[in-house]
Amino acid sequence: MTSRLRLGINIDHVATLRNARGGALPDPVRAAHLAIAAGADGITAHLREDRRHIRDADVERLATELTKPLNFEMATTDEMLALAERLKPHAACLVPEKREERTTEGGLDVVGQQAMLAPRIERLKAAGCRVSLFIEPDRAPIAMAVKLGAPVVELHTGSWCHAVVAGETDKAASEFQRLAEGAAYAASLGLEVHAGHGLDYETARQLARVSDFVEFNIGHFLMGEAIFVGLDTAIRRMRLAMDDGRAAI
Ligand SMILES: CC(=O)[C@@H](O)[C@H](O)COP(=O)(O)O
Ligand SMILES: NCC(=O)COP(=O)(O)O
């Protein structure tokens, strides 16, 4: 019997829409509560250094108001570490960040940055956060996650999702294989394996067939769908797509 996949809802892009007009609406925290009512197992929010979507006040409210776990995505900076140590979110997911990028391009360079990461991961663990590393689905970063003492990895699904949407079938097949092999390798080393970035109903359904994944974090696609069908319906459809994929194992 394969376990049920957890669904974390990323509410960053509710804040993108709010910030386009500089006011208070739409409220990403309201979206988080609605997502939980629709069946989300947790909420993900990424406080970027440039505050382009989620802002400090949003994270403060999420950390105190939510009835389900908060997965706080953060760059490994002193500012973000201090915030995580103070707010103690359930999970702290370390992600790479570049000011000039449109979205998170690629995984964290855990191999090149191991000396910088090691003490910072220890600080987050000491604060009680479950540390997750957002990495490429390759053996070297996965093995390094173990060495660094992170209990969780989130495998970046962006390259695969992009290839699927672009109709690049050969690339999509090899990227899917890379994700499936990466998930199996990570699970074999005792890591909890998550996935996220760019997932939609169809890619989530397909990836749910890889039994090593225990959690998907999904945002941008669902916020787009919410314009057409409402957020509650979009999340329930995503839940069904994931359950459908998992039932096919
Ligand atoms: C780290 C990641 O994959 C995404 O959660 C990201 O937080 C979404 O926000 P951006 O679109 O700003 O990358
Ligand atoms: N970590 C990935 C995430 O939280 C959501 O990514 P996306 O669905 O907004 O691309």
From TrEMBL:
Enzyme type, top EC level: transferase
Molecular-function GO terms, alphabetical: pyridoxine 5'-phosphate synthase activity
Gene3D superfamilies with a match to the protein in the record: Aldolase class I (3.20.20.70)
Main location per the UniProt record: cytoplasm
EC number: 2.6.99.2
The family this protein is said to belong to: Belongs to the PNP synthase family.
Gene Ontology annotations of biological process type: pyridoxine biosynthetic process
Binding of 1-deoxy-D-xylulose 5-phosphate, residues: D12, H13, R48, H53, T103
Chain positions of site Transition state stabilizer: E154
Summary of subunit composition and partner proteins: Homooctamer; tetramer of dimers.
CC per GO annotation: cytosol
Organism: Bosea lathyri
Compartment(s) of residence: Cytoplasm
Name of this protein: Pyridoxine 5'-phosphate synthase
NCBIfam families the UniProt entry points to: pdxJ, PRK05265.1-2, PRK05265.1-3, PRK05265.1-5
Keywords, alphabetical: Cytoplasm, Pyridoxine biosynthesis, Transferase
Pathway: Cofactor biosynthesis; pyridoxine 5'-phosphate biosynthesis; pyridoxine 5'-phosphate from D-erythrose 4-phosphate: step 5/5
